[in-house]
Structure formats: structure tokens, C-alpha cells
Amino acid sequence: MEKGTLIEFRLQGERRLAVADRPEGKKHWIVIDERGQSHTLHPRQVTYEVAGCTFKPSEIHNFLEEVESYLDPSSLEVAWELLVEDGEAVTDAQMAQLLFSDQSPPLRYAAHCLLSEDKIYFKQKAESYEPRSATMVAEIKHQRSAEEAKLREQQEFSTRVQQRLTGILVEWQDSDRSRFDVLERFVLHPENASRAAQDILVGLGRSQTAQAAFDLLVDLGWWSPHENLFLRRSQIPIQFRREVLEVAQQCLESPPPDPDVDRLDLTHLKVYTIDDESTQEIDDGLSLETLEDGRQRLWIHIADPTRLVQPGDELDLEARRRSTTLYLPTGMIPMFPPELATGPMSLVQGRVCAALSFGVVLDETGNIQDYEIRASLIKPTYRLTYEDVDEMLQLGVRAEPEIEAIASWAVRREEWRRSQGSISIHMPEAVIKVHSDDEIIIDVLDDARSRQLVAEMMILAGEVAGRYGQEHQIPLPFRGQPQPELPSEEELVQLPAGPVRFCAVRRCMPRSEMSITPIRHAGLALETYTQATSPIRRYTDLLTHFQIKAHLRGDPLPFSAEQLQETLLSVTTTAYEATLVERQTNRYWGLEYLRRNADQVWQVLVLRWLREHDNLGLILLEDLGLELVMRFKRSVSLGDRLEVQVSHADPRQDVIQFRELVDQEAQAAAS
Q: Which ranges of 396-538 would DSSP assign to H, the alpha helix?
């Protein structure tokens, strides 16, 4: 390099020109740029030498101005088209001649700038540039086009987000929905945080956290502030697939032939369906028939969805995938499409309905004396609520003596099971309902006679179904429960009667089990039992119907023992997940109710210790039927009643804290 040589170098990535001034040491040169600033460079730092003339630093500006007018990147495409077929490499001088028909220093440098910045048509190879293949150029252009479109989409998405945040209604695009999906996954599984989710948040000026993603989805109205994350994290489908809805519509318009052509006509019987007022899937009804010999036969009629569903068809597979109907405070997610579940599958008042009817004659002690199971036709007479039945029993309505008789048999039946060693646990149960305006209502179920009546009749039907399966060696989803090791009478007597004592017994109860062969159910004190009374909302009950009805018709069983076992494995796993979602969702809304009513004074009962040495125990809010954890600031005993207020509640973080009120505080709060 000589003094006066114009050279190019990079300073912090920026292209700069300078004139060689003098050597510095053995290899370095001091160069002066157009601003008069000196730089010490090693030859390796020089990216280009302008050959053929010498310059002064003051001439750099004019040189660059002359070069600038030739820097049109589109001109490279023309050159590439001329060179690509031969595939020969070119130098900057050859490119200047090709583009500008001149090889003067400014034009050679312009060619160098174009080639060195080009990422599409040419690639550098030593001191020359080789044209890329047509295939490679097309691929690069495609990638660039995709990147530009992606950037444009991001900018348009950001604009729509800002508009929505200012209250303007926008129409979200398909590409927006994919971004929301990414954010949703980040919220639901923050441990698997994706770069895409964080990039979206950064692009919108939000922090890169799962909470920020949740807040954004809420701010945009994509999610509710009380979005059910438990449900979203589960594998439980919320909507029905189009194919399933189409099959359901076909069933409504053209019901398939009834596989049970010889149904027993029981439409002459008075049938009572007893449910909560809000119940939509009506799956059981009760009748009483007086036989010629004076004995009374109880009829438990169960809805018969197998009238419309066959094993392995679209509806059956969808119900199997769901396993159960979910009952959440915000509404139910049915196992079958609602048009079927609440329509032709249900026992609708005044309509002739297909049913599976369990006819049972009990002896004086409440034991089963005789039974039969028949595919039937019934016509529900009355749709009653539990409150209706309680009132009828209390008033002794003479026009409906069947209700009193069924209730008497239910009492006798319960006494018989108690004599066999049944274990009864009566704890308050909260029923939480959330209305469309997010109003929360919590009711506490009591041990009303009507509820005991229905429960005993359903247990009776389950025992009859189990007996039938056992006697005919039919594989069924039998339910059982191992014998618990209960506290001794002496231990129980030391505990306050009521919830505290029931809570101690409940702790000892093992989980129920399922088997394809009969097993004893210790809690119910039955040697054989299977659930058969909710086939619209429990898939295991539907399996029981499939098996029993096929046997009644004399058809081959739809499920072999091995097939039933395999099906139960998947179904029970999904049903357990559904139970967890129900439990978590109820707890969330229970805590939200307490958060909103933080000023309320609650009377609580100390149920049991979790860690007595830490004063950590379980309390029961008696007015709400909620069981929650509390750390006590003083010594308390099981069965003590305290007055407390919520000191802190965060439903999303599953946190609730209470403080006990002393007498003066309680009086002040009450006033």
C-alpha cells in the first residue's frame, strides 16, 4: 500500500473510506478519513483498495457522491441474467465494464459496493464473484418474500392490537389466531416458553412473562379475566367436532331403528323424575307398582341412550373420548351433543321415552327379594325438584301416595345397608353457580329426605345391575371399595359429633376401585355393584347398558373382558382428569367469592389438623360448605367455632388466608 491510496475498512460494522497516510510499525498503517480523523489499521482490516490513482482526505466526499449515483441494486439482476448461464465469476472491474461500460475507479468501487452487499445473485469467491444458480436465487427470493410478508403481518397485527386496546372493534385474521394460540400455550405451560411467544410480547411492548401474556389476552377480550386455565390445560374437548354434530342432527331428523323391538310397555305407570331445577340431562325416574299379591314393586327407570348409540359409532367414540359430562360453576360440558342429551336421550315429561327399567321387590328388611331388568317404554308424568318432593313428603299429599311409599322403601333400604356395615358420611356440600354477569351463588346441599330417596334408589339399581352381571357372568365395570381401617368407637366418641367426626371417618376411606369382575363395595356394604344410572353423562354407565342390553336381547356382548378392560383404562384416566378440573374450578370460584366478600365475617368449624405443631388445620365455612386451610394464631381444639375474615385471597395463585376476629372486632364488624 502506498501513501495516498484510497482504502475501505469497517468501523463498528459501518463501511468507511480513508486515505493511507504513513506506515506504523512493520505492518500497520495510519489512515485519514474525510473528517480528518486518523485510524491505525492492520492490512487484514482493509476490505478494498481503490486502484489506479491517489487521493487526499478532502477528495473522499466528492468521490462518494460520484459513486452514489451508480448504486442501484436492481442493476445486478440484469448482470446476473447475462452471466448465470455460463456461471463464470467476475471481478469488480469486469462488473463495472458490464454495468457501466467503464472501469474508472469510482465505477469499479460502485461495482464492488453492489457485489459485496448483494445477498441474492452473487457469492464472493476469493477476489471475484460467482453468479448463484437460478434455483438458489429463486429460493432466496422466496425466503425474502416470506420474511417481508411476515414482517408486514407483524406490523398489521400490532396495529390491530393497538386499535383493540383503545376500544375499536377489529376483525382478527387467521394469522392473528395463530399468534393467540402461541400466547395461550405460553400461559398454560410457561415451563415450555417459546421464543415466538416472547417475540410477540416484546413486539407489543410487554414483558416476556406468562402473566403478561395472560393480561394481554384478557385486555384484548380474547380471554375472560376468569378464564378456566384448568380446563384449557386438560385434554378435555370443549366443542364437538363437526362430524359428531352432523350425526347428532341425523339422529334427530331420522332416528335409527330401535334394536330392542320387544320393549316392555310401562307407559301406564306414574313416573316421577326428581332433579335440581337447573338439571337439563334427565336420566332417571321412579315408579311404584302394586302387584296382584299385594306386594309393591319399585321401578327405577334409566334413560336409554343406546336407543340411538351403537358401540363403535361416531357418537359412542366421542362419548368414550370425553368419558363424562363436566359440571362446572359456569355451566356443563356434556358427554353427548346437547341436542341429543337434553332431548331424545332424556326422560322428558309427557313424552314416550325409551328406558332401561329395573323392577325390584324388597322384603320387609329392605333386602332384594326379586328383580327384573327390561328395555322399556315409559311416559314421565311429573318433573319434580328435590324441594317439591320434600314439600310433598312434609305435607303428606294424598294424591301422590306413591311418593311416600317410595320414600319409605328408601328408608328401609338405607337401614338394611347400615345393618350390613355401610359407612355414611354426611358433610355439607357446596354447589357453586356463576351467572353470565360473573355473579357467584353458593348453595349448600343438605341431607334432605328427597335426596336420600333418590340416592338410595340409584344405589339399588346399581346393585341389581351388578347382580345381573354376576349371575350371568357378564364383564361389567364393577365398582368396589376396600374395607377401611376406621377409628375405634372410643376414638370417635372423643371427637365432636357431626362434621368433625365424619371428617375423621372420611380420611380413612380408601379410593374406590373398578374391576370387570364383581368386588365388594365396603362403603355401600354391597357384595356387587356397578353404576348404571347415568348413561347420558358417565361413559362407564353407558358400557353397563351396552353389555346388559345385548345379553337381554340374546346378542353377542359388544365388549369382551379384554376389550372392556382396555376401554376402562382410557376412560377412567380421562374421567379422573375431569374430576380434577371440576374440583379445581370449584375451588377457584369459591376463593373468588371469598375475595369479593373479604369484609364478611364467617363462622367456621375447626375440622381436623394438618400439622398440629404448626397450628395448621382444616376449617369448614358452614354457611358455604367450603373446606379450606387456616393457620391459627392461638391454641384451638377440634370442633371449636371461630369467627374469621379473609385477610388475603388470590384465586389465580390458589391462595387464601384468614384472620380470626376477637369479640370486639366481631362486634365492630357486625355493626
A: 401-419, 449-471, 489-493, 499-508
